[in-house]
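Entry under discussion copied across for reference:
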Amino acid sequence: NTTVNSIQFDITAPATGASVTGLPSGLSGNYSNNKFTISGSPTVSGTFEYTVTTTGSCVQKSQKGIIIVYAKPEVEAIEDVVGCNDFDIDEINFSGNIDDPNGYFEWTNDNVSIGLPASGNGNIPAFTATNPGSTSVIAKITVTPISYGCLGNSKTFEIKVNPTINVGYEIPPVSCNGSGDGKIEITNTSGGNANYRYSLDGTNFVTSTNFKNLAGGIYTLYVKDTEVCETSYEFTIDEPEELSVTAPTSTSESCYGGVNNVHDGAITAGIPTGGNGDYSYSLDNTNFQSSPNFT
C-alpha cells in the first residue's frame, strides 16, 4: 500500500495518447499533455511486466517495463515480559514476514531506567533488569519490521520490572534445649507483585506468614511472588543449652524437732546453667520461688 514514485513516458506525434497493460492492482496509467504517467499504490506483491502502447496513430509503439512490489513486512505479536530488579531477562526474539535478506526489526524503548537501551535493531539481547525503587516500572517497547526500505505496521509490548522483595521477620528462640516450639514470624513483605508465598525447603510454598513448631538450628526462608521475583534469607533459631545445676548445699537443724517449733535447717540450691536464664526453684515441683534459698 505504499505509493510508488510516478513512472512517466513522453508521447510524441503522431500518437495522441497511450494505454498500459500488466500493472498490479492499485496502479493505473493516465495520459495528459503528451505525457503518460503510471502512479498509485499497489495492493498486491510480486513482479509485474507492464506494456505501454501509444494510440491515435497508424503505427503503434510499445515499451515494456518491470515493477517489483515487495510484500509489506510484518512482525508477529509479542507477549509482555515480567522481570525483577537485578534479575536477568532472556533474549527477546521477534519473528514475522520479511522477504528482504537484509531486512530487520527495529525497536524502541520508552523507559531506559529498566536497564535496556532506548533503541536497537534485531532481537533484544539478554539484559539485567533494574528497578531500585519500591513500585513496579513499565517500559513500552515498539517493534517495526523493515524490508527493502518498506516499513510494516509496528507492534508494541511491555516489559515490567518489579522491585526487589524485602522481608521483615522475628525469630523467637525455642524455650528449652530439645524443644520444638521455635517460630518464624514474618512481620512484613514488600516488593515483587505483592502476591507472596513462603517456604523453608524451596519446594513447598504457602501463603501463611508463620512457621511454628520448629527445632533450634539453621533455616533458609524462601520468598517469591506469582511472577518471577524471589529471594531467600538464612538465619538461626537459637536454642538454649541444656539446663543443669550443681549439687545443693544444706544446713542441718541445730536441735531435733526444732526449738520452740522453730526449725533452723536450710537448703541452698546449686548454681544453674543453661536454659533461658530465668530460673525459679521448688522443693515440691509445684510451688516455685525466685530465691535459691529455702529455710
The first strand starts at residue 7 and ends at 10.
